[in-house]
Each structure stands twice: as C-alpha cells, then as structure tokens.
Amino acid sequence: MPDIWIAWGAILLGFVGLVWSADRFVEGSAAFAENLGLSKLVIGLTIVSLGTSAPEIVVSVSASLKDEGQLAIGNALGSNLANIGMVLAATALISPIPIFRHILTQELPILLVVTALAGLFLFDAKLEVYEGIILAATVVPLISWMIISKKNHHSPEEEETEIESMPNSKAIMWFVIGLALLIGSSEVLVWGATTAATHFGVSPLIIGLTIVAIGTSLPELAASVMSAIRGHHDIALGNVVGSNIFNILAVMSVPGILGPLSMDTEVFNRDYLAMAAITVFLAVVLIIDYTIASKKHGSGKLGRIIGALLLAAYVTYCVSLFTV
C-alpha cells in the first residue's frame, strides 16, 4: 500500500513540476527570442505554441526511453480527446466561443489532414521509425506556412502574444531551469504513472489516455476557463486546434522515432477512432454553425449545448476504458 501512495505523490509532484517548469521555459525562450528581434507574432506561433505541448512532448520522450511507448501514444491521443471533450467543452459551458473564419479555412483542415495521417500510421498497430520521422518533419514546414499566412492575412481578432521583458541572462536562466525541471518532472510522472498502472492491473496505455493526458491538459483547461470567465475566450478554439495538431506531430512522433513501436489493436480500434470521431464531430458542428450564422449576418459560436455534448462524450469514453 505505501508504494501506491508514493506513486500518486509522484504523479501529483510531476504534474505540478510540469506546469510550473513549462511556464518558465516558455517565458525564458520567448523573452530571449524577442531580444533577438523576432516579432511577437512569430514567437507566439512557434515558441508559445510548442510550449503548450512541452509537457506532453517531454513525457512522451521519457516514457519512450523507458520502453513505455504505449503510454506516450496514449498521452498524445488522450490529450487531444481531453482538449476537445474537457478544455473546449468546459470553456463553451461557461461562455459560447466565437468561431472565426480563419479557423475553418486554415487550422481546422490541417487538423483533419494530420488526424487522418495519424490514423494511416496507427492502423496496423505499429509506428515505424520512418512514420515518426514524417510526423516530426512536418512541424517545421507547417509552422513556416502558418507564420507566412498570418503575416499576410493578420485578422483583427488575433492578438499578439504578451511577452515579459527580461535581460538575456535572466531569460537564459529560466530557459535552462525550465527545461531541466521539465525533464525531471516528466521522469517522476512517468515513474508514478507506470507504478500506479502496475498496482491496479491496468495497462500504461490506459493511464496515458486518462490520468497523464488529463494532467498534461490542465494548464490549457485553467487558462481557457479563466479567459472565459474574464470574457477573453476569443482564442480558445484556435488554441485547442493548434495544440491538437502539435500533439499528433510533435508528441506522437517521439515513440516512433525512438522505436519502432508495436501496440495493442485497441490503440486504433478504440482510442484513435474515438479521437477521430470527436474531432470530425467538432469540425462538422463548427462548419454548420458558422454557415447558418453567416446567412443570418451574425457571428458563429460554439454554444453550451455542443459543449455539454462534447463533455458527455468524453466522460463516457473515459468511463468505458475502465468498465468495458
């Protein structure tokens, strides 16, 4: 019994460390980049966007190095499910989320294509090294395209990232401390998660899909909920879509690159299909809502009813993992 309490303590400590160190890592990186003369828009689309996926990335690396690749895959798929079914749903329940045209014409199509690519790679219950490399290699051209696109079509509702000014010495200090604690926290979290999985007789995949995925999505949940409460929820939808894109490309690619990785068939038949289904459902709802609103000369919104449906679907999925 003491071992399981130590494991839960390690999970909690790992989560707290990931959240705190990710913030320090992003702040230091962003400040240093600004001191080098990069624009806030570029920093927001690169360092800050990838920074929100930093906890998932380092957990994926740590798990893969410990031969727990399925935990890493579960973290990637589970985080995408949590982002839509928990983060976006909770935000919509607090206040309807505006739907902007650029989400439908730029980010959403990319998410659907990336999701389909992930399905193609996971279909045979294997993730080969070349497949992981393809996913990871897509990140750089994608970010480059987004930077060019946003510079040429910068819409008024897109706010530039707020960056705390600090000297290079302080920025580098927080970058190093943040990165070191990210790595250390991920090690502690993965150990706790695998120990808990062994104790309860469930697979590390299930732990990755639920506890680890929800935990690494807590920063996005807290930020989105507080923004909605304060009335600044305009970018919630874009943040979730962008985070899900990077989770597939930057997080799911890791166990493949360090692999190859063989998985249970449930990874595709149950978990990937659940992620794909909720992603497609979100896309269809956004397109229909925006189209109807456009005909009425209004602004499309992701409302509370859809938020409740998304949350109910996510809770049902999580419960089914432990009961079916």
Note down, in words, how this protein is organized.
The chain is mainly α and 324 residues long. It has a single domain, classed as Up-down Bundle (A middle domain of Talin 1). Helix content is 80%, strand content 2%. The protein has a two-stranded antiparallel sheet with strand order 1-4. A two-stranded antiparallel ribbon has the order 2-3. Helix 4 runs parallel beside helix 9. The longest helix has 34 residues. The relative contact order is 0.22.
Major sheet description: 2 strands, antiparallel
Q: What percentage of residues falls in helices of 4 or more residues?
A: over 70%
Strand order of the largest sheet: 1-4
H-E string:
HHHHEHEHHHHHHEHEH
* SS element count, helices: 13
- End-to-end Cα distance, whole Å, is 26 Å
What is the CATH homology-level superfamily? NCX, central ion-binding region
Question: Structural class, please?
Answer: mainly alpha
- CATH class placement: Mainly Alpha
Strand content: under 5%
Name the CATH architecture.
Up-down Bundle
Net shape: globular
- Unreliable spans are none
Mean pLDDT: 80
Short précis:
The protein has 324 residues and is mostly helical.
